[in-house]
Amino acid sequence: MQGLFDLYGLLNKDLTDMEELGKVNSTRLYKLWKNLTVAMVTVIAMMTASKLLPYYLSPVASLIAAAFLYTYVFEARAKRDNSCMIVPYGMLYSLVLYSFVSILLNVMYSWGVKTIPLEFVFFNDPYIPSLLMNPVCFLTFTFMYLRRSHLHICMECRLHHGESMDNSALAGVFRHESHFQLRNLMIIFGLLSFLVWGYYLIFYVNININARDWYMFTWLTIILVILDEVYFIARYYNLFLDLKENNEIIMPEELQDITAKTYLRFYVICGNHIYVDTHAVDPRAPYREIIDTPFFTKRSVNGIGIAEIKRVIKRMTGYDGELRFFYGRKSIDISNHSILRYFYFLDGDIEDYKEMNTDGEWMDYEKIKYLYSNNPGRLSSISVTDTTRLATIMLTEKIFDENGYRKSKIKFYNPSFNLIDVRKSNLDFQDDKWIRISMFNSDTPFYGIKRRWRRIAGGQNKSKNSWR
Predict the structure, then answer these.
(1) How far is residue 26's CA from residue 244's CA, in Å, rounded to a whole number?
(2) Among 227, 231, 183, 242, which residue's Cα sits nearest to residue 29?
(3) 157 pLDDT higher than 90
(4) Nearest-angstrom CA–CA distance, 217 and 198
(5) What are phi and psi of 83, to 5 degrees?
(6) Residue 169: its pLDDT value, please?
(7) Cβ(301)–Cβ(262) under 8 Å?
(8) 33 pLDDT above the threshold of 80
(9) What sign has the CA pseudo-torsion 311, 380, 148, 62?
(10) pLDDT at position 253 over 90
């Protein structure tokens, strides 16, 4: 009876550890608000400067604001900041596009190529930047909202953070709030475009601009952006309280008290079969059974020697096999927590390994692939993430070469793979090279041109992404 209580306590402890990995760092929530605030304050500063400075300096003010956001966004990326940068990124493009369109219209006007209203000429008094700025922001954020799952910055984030951005409360917050922020800004700038252009076309008299005109053309934009910022302050404060009430948030002082932990996951394989627990408990819903590897443990250390890891899995299985590293990632929020995955290949047939030291059963990998494609909810979320990485790397290497071009001229060639292929493979699953190729290859329209441009712009990352 005491053994049952010990087993129950161990199970609860493992669930608690998994829940701990998925909690939201309060600092990360603050940065989610901070990045939005930086973008919105930049717009306020640009609009204010355009009103107070000489009109011909308006493009200069917008370019300075864009340069500030460029520095802010790419410094954060260089430091591997885990906060969501999609709004500053969108505002950066909005300011650059506004500056480009504004300068282009004025050049065309100066050369007599095109006649434009004087309110668009920044050498004229008055110059009204909101007539261009609001529609450009609206179109930019509309495009980003519609393409939100395919934006380069979002794909890079998922690539760098792996399961941390797929299987945690933080993932849900980032995913929902980033989309909400984009939709909110799309609506705000769409409404401002409608109001400003409606006033300009119906009520504005271009003989003499008065205080009401300036209120509509400048201060209305600033006031609505400020009110939107106040709304988000209240929104994220309430979100913080909700997460805290549900015990889904970690405070900075709590992080300092958390000891280093290394989690080990083993996928035990024999031929094309994998050993699984079909009655595993979902840590996010303990009442639900899922399929997962039963070989999961942790050590309260930061890093474990390969000899110790081999002893751990040999003790858990009771058999000697071939240990091979799969890949590893650090937790996005708890920097001294990491998860390492390993393959453990057994020779012979599954009939030779009926008596395992750990409860479970052998399952044909074809069934796992079927469930992954048709009913992924039957698998643990972390298994889905790992299968996605394994399949992406294996299939991409079969289809494309290292330059991103198809190996076969048959465009609709769809290869398959199994665990025997995995064992024979010499691929480095820790390296992100093949995942990058899967996202950007010769199937991409204008691939050759885009590839050359990335090389010129320095956007093609050729370094090996070994550990994060």
Answers:
(1) 9
(2) 242
(3) no
(4) 11
(5) -80, 160
(6) 57
(7) yes
(8) yes
(9) negative
(10) no
- Return the axis-axis angle of helices 86-110 and 26-52, rounded to nearest 10°: 20
* 86, 168 contact by CB (below 8 A): no
Running DSSP on this structure, what letter comes out for residue 219? Answer: I
Burial code (b: 16+ CB inside 10 Å, e: under 16) for 59-85 equals bebbbbbbebbeebbeebeeeeebbbb
Closest of 86, 80, 45, 75 to residue 62, by C-alpha: 45
- Nearest alpha carbon to residue 441 among 451, 456, 429, 431: 451
DSSP assigned state of 215: I
Dihedral, CA of residue 346, residue 350, residue 353 and residue 356, to nearest 10: 90
Contact, 338 vs 263, CB < 8 A? yes
Q: What is the pLDDT of residues 341-359, one digit of tens each?
A: 999 999 999 999 988 999 9
Q: Over range 154-172, report the average pLDDT.
A: 61
- The better pLDDT of the pair 254, 219 is held by 219
pTM: 0.76
AA letter at 196: V
Tell me the CA distances in angstroms from 141 to 146, 171, 186, 189, one per residue in order. 8, 21, 5, 9
Note the pLDDT of residue 467: 36
pLDDT average, residue stretch 409-420: 85
When pLDDT is averaged across residues 265-284 and rounded to a whole number, the result is 91
CA dihedral 331→238→190→88, nearest 10 degrees, is -30
Q: What is the Cα–Cα distance from 6 to 1, expressed in whole angstroms?
A: 9
Residues facing residue 24 across a β-bridge: 249
